[in-house]
Amino acid sequence: MDDVLFQSDVTILGVGNVILRDEGFGVRVAEYLDAHYDFPENVQIVDGGTLGIELTQFVTGTKKLLVIDSINGHAAPGTRFAFRDDDVLAHFQDKISAHEVGIQDVLALLTVTGRKIPTVTVLGAQPYDLEAGVELSDEMKALVPEVVEEALAELRRWGIEATPKEHVSAVETDRVAEAIAGKN
What we know:
Layout: E1 10-15, H1 25-36, E2 37-38, E3 43-49, H2 56-59, E4 64-70, E5 80-84, H3 86-92, H4 98-112, E6 119-125, H5 138-157, E7 163-164, H6 170-175, H7 177-180
Parallel strand pairs: 1-3, 1-4, 4-6
Antiparallel strand pairs: 2-7, 5-6
């Protein structure tokens, strides 16, 4: 697997465009997880941003993939979603943005090349605001702790235990300030 930069048994992938407010939700949740929890060595957290097909080098060989994203489910803003395994590709048929095309392409490519990821879960929420800006809307910020807990529960189902960090450094807190909104 010469095309794989990082191979890990479990990948937590936060995706989204952080300059379109709530579209960056997945990245902000991944940042929060990274800043507040330690994970076993076989778990990697990836800020996938809007990488698209380039994500292949980060997820090839992973056995369990947890994607966190803002999700266009044609529902009321704030509605939370969870898709697992076969339902994941069905979700990506109706894309909210270009990065989701990339995820769909990555999953399809891995499948046709015989490297399908055995377990895939997508967690997220219907965005409130997709205007230009780097901060999540207040409503979406309020969903971060809920989706973090849902992600941790999914990881526990996979046998992965995260350990809360004793101290979150000022740099880490500043990096995810808009996501945590004063919540620990």
